[in-house]
Design brief:
This protein is an all-beta fold. It is 0% helix and 61% strand. Strand 5 and strand 6 form a beta hairpin.
């Protein structure tokens, strides 16, 4: 199986920056995709940004130009650099990966526990 360890959340003022990290570990044979989702109180979980094993990235329109996703394949780690943060970015941020693990022929999705990001006005 896969374990995802997230870090980097916290409280920041509007306009500030935070960097989230997520390290995947376990019996991983291949990581196909890594991404970040977020869920604000009373709202559905939404995709923030994602990156493929080849480095292709995509972003939610609301974060384009402010957030940058990157990946260290050697460390099975994905990062989310968040700049120019706004109060509406406040949410629990979840790391997600699609990976093939030992003993399985097909990829599965795995989720981290989530890390709180709070942006004050």
């Amino acid at each position: 199986q896969v374990q995802l360890a997230e870090s980097g959340g916290g409280l920041v003022q509007a306009g500030g920056s935070l960097r989230l990290s997520c390290a995947a570990s376990g019996s991983i044979l291949e990581i196909i995709y890594m991404g970040w989702y977020r869920q604000a109180p009373g709202k559905q979980r939404e995709l923030v940004a994602g990156i493929t094993s080849g480095g292709a990235t995509h972003y939610a329109d609301s974060v384009k130009g402010r957030f940058t996703i990157s990946r260290d394949n050697a460390k099975n780690t994905v990062y989310l650099q968040m700049n120019s943060l706004k109060p509406e970015d406040t949410a629990v941020y979840y790391c997600n990966t699609r990976a093939v693990v030992a003993g399985s022929r097909f990829p599965s999705d795995y989720w981290g526990q989530g890390t709180q990001v709070t942006v004050s006005p």
